[in-house]
Specification:
Elements lengths: L9 E6 L6 E9 L3 H10 L9 E2 L1 E2 L7 E2 L4 E5 L6 H24 L9 E9 L6 H21 L3 H9 L13
Parallel strand pairs: 6-7
Antiparallel strand pairs: 1-2, 2-7, 3-6, 4-5
Helix pairs in contact: 2-3
Length: 175
C-alpha cells in the first residue's frame, strides 16, 4: 500500500500501562479529499479545553518546524490541570510526532504535504510521568498508523467475529 491509497483509513492504538498509558484514534487523509476537508474543519474549530494542535517540533518556539506529513492532534478530554495540559502540548505531541515519523521511516507514510494525519488523543487524568506519556504516545500512534495503512490480518478479523458475543469494554459494566 502506498500513502496515495490511505484516504479515510481509521484505526486506534494503545501504548503503555495506566496511568501513563495513551489511547489514540488515527484518521489518514490525502490533500484535497473530503476527509482532508473534515480534518481542516476540526483543526479550525477549537472549543474551550479542546485546542487543535498542528504538530510542530523544535527546541524552542522560534525554531519550530511543521511535522511532515502534517499532523493535527485533538484531545478527547478537557485537561483539568496545568500538568495535563503540559502532557498534551508537550509529551504527547512529541510522542505522536515520533510515531508518525516511525511510519515514515518504515515507508508507510510519505513525509509530504499531500498526506494529512489526524490523531485524537486520550490521556488518563491520573497520568504523572511525562517521559512515559511521550513513549506511550509514540507506541500508540505507531500502532494506529500501521493498522490504518496495513489493516488487520484475516485471522484477526475473523476471530473478532467469532468472539462477538464476548465483547466487553472497561467502560461497560452491564451483562
Amino acid at each position: 500500500m502506498t500513502s496515495e491509497n490511505i484516504d479515510g483509513r481509521l484505526a486506534q492504538g494503545w501504548g503503555g500501562e495506566a496511568p501513563n498509558g495513551i489511547h489514540v484514534n488515527v484518521l489518514l487523509a490525502r490533500r484535497g479529499s473530503p476527509t482532508a476537508a473534515s480534518i481542516t474543519t476540526a483543526f479550525t474549530s477549537p472549543a474551550p479545553g479542546f485546542t487543535p494542535i498542528l504538530a510542530s517540533l523544535g527546541p524552542d518556539q522560534k525554531s519550530y518546524v511543521t511535522l511532515n506529513p502534517p499532523t493535527v492532534i485533538l484531545n478527547k478530554s478537557k485537561p483539568d490541570t496545568d500538568f495535563q495540559e503540559t502532557l498534551i502540548f508537550g509529551a504527547a505531541q512529541v510522542g505522536i510526532a515520533q510515531g508518525v515519523l516511525d511510519a515514515v521511516a518504515d515507508s508507510l507514510l510519505a513525509p509530504d504535504q499531500e498526506t494529512i494525519v489526524l490523531v485524537s488523543l486520550w490521556i488518563d487524568p491520573k497520568a504523572d510521568d511525562e517521559t512515559e506519556a511521550r513513549k506511550n504516545s509514540r507506541i500508540a500512534t505507531g500502532r494506529a498508523v500501521r493498522e490504518a495503512i496495513l489493516g488487520r490480518s484475516e485471522g484477526e478479523r475473523q476471530e473478532l467475529v467469532k468472539q462477538r458475543d464476548l465483547i466487553t469494554h472497561p467502560f461497560y459494566s452491564g451483562q
